Amino acid sequence: MKGSNTTIGVFIVCLQVLLRHKRYVFFILFLTLFPLYVIINRLFLFLDHILFFDFDKQKIYNPILIMGFNRSGTTFFHHLLSQSQKFTTSRTWEFITPSISLRKTLFFIRPILNLLQWNKLEKKERGHQVGLDDVEEDEMLLFFHKLDSKWISNNLIPWMKYDNKFKDFTSQLYIDNENNQKRTMGSIHFCKQFWKRQVFLQKGKRVLSKSNPFIFRLKSIIKVFPDAKIIFIVRDPIETIVSFFSMQEKMKYGNVMSKKELSLYRKEAYKEIIDWYQETENAKQLLNRKQFIVLTYDELKNNLYRSVDKFFNFIGEDIDNDFETILKEKSEKKYAKKHQNKTINDFGFTQEQIKEDFAFVYKEYFN
Q1: How many H-runs (helices) and E-runs (strands) does the chain carry?
Q2: Which residue range forms the structural domain that includes residue 291?
Q3: How many domains does the chain have?
Q4: Which sign, positive or negative, has the C-alpha torsion 283, 241, 74, 309?
Q5: Going by fewer Cβ within 10 Å, which terminus of the chain is more open, N or C?
Q6: What is the pLDDT of residues 236-269, one digit of tens each?
Q7: CATH number of residue 176's parent domain
C-alpha cells in the first residue's frame, strides 16, 4: 500500500490503521486533537521569531548524541549526565510545547498538573517513567510534532508494523533513503531550531541529546551537524529483547493489544531490532574514528565511574566537583535488578536463534 511520507500522509495512514483495527475511540481522539495541537504549536513557533528572535542566532556546536537500542542503558546514562549541569537538555513539557511563546502563555498549566498529580504520562513501574519535568529523549519532538518517528509504529499505533496493507509503507519510514531525503532533512532542521531555543534559554550550554532512532538517519544528521560527537551504547541482544518486550506489555498500548496482536507485532519488531544493531555497526564505518565511542551496558553496570570518565575525555570536558560527588554516590551503589523479566522463550524466540541472528554483535562485543 502506497502512502505519502509527510506529516499529513502518515497521519492519514494512522487513521486508516486505527479504523482497520477497530480502535474507534482512539481514531476520534487522534482525528480531532492532533491537527489542533499541530496548528497551535506552529502558530506559536512562528511567533517566537517575532518575540524571541535572538534565539535564531544561537550556534549548535559539537552536539553530543547518545544512541542505542531501547533498554540498553541509554536513558540511564542520559539522565545521569544531565545532572552535571554542563549541557543543554530538554524535558517532556518542553517537547510538548517547543515554542518559547507557548510555554510562557501556558505558564500556569504545569503547577496545576503537579498539584493534581497529573504530571506523569507513564509511570516508573511500567518500565520507563515519563513525567512532564523529566529529561527525555529528543525523538519525542519528532513524534509529537512531525509524526516522523519510530515511536509511531513502536508505541502509538503498533498495528502499523504488521498490518498487511501498511507494513511495507511503515518499514520505509523514519530511515535515510532517497525517497525520505526531503522529509528527513526537514525533521532534522526542525530539531535544530528546537535546540537553538533550548540553548538560548539555557545560556549557550552544549547540547546533550539522546534519541535511539537517530541511528537510522545518521547520514543526514552528520550533514547538518558534521562536528557531532556520538556515543553508542550496546547491550547483549538477548537481555535487550527480553527487557524491551517485557516493558512493552506494561505500557498502555501493550495492554490493549491481544496476545495474537502482540505476537504478530513482535515478529516484525524483531526484524527491526536486528536492523537497529546492524545500523550501529554500519555507522562505525561511516564516522571518523574520533567522532564516536562505544560503551556496553556491562561497562555501565560494572564500572560506571570509568564509563563516565571515558565519556568526558571523549568530548573534551572535565568533570566538575559537584557532578563528581553525584557520580561517586551512583558508582558506589550496587546494581540491583528492579523487576523480574520473562525469558526469551516466553516471547516465541530461542537463545540459539538470537545468537545466530545477532552473531555480528556477539562477535564484536560479547565473545
Answers
A1: 19, 7
A2: 7-299+333-365
A3: 1
A4: negative
A5: C
A6: 999 999 999 988 777 655 567 888 998 999 999 9
A7: 3.40.50.300
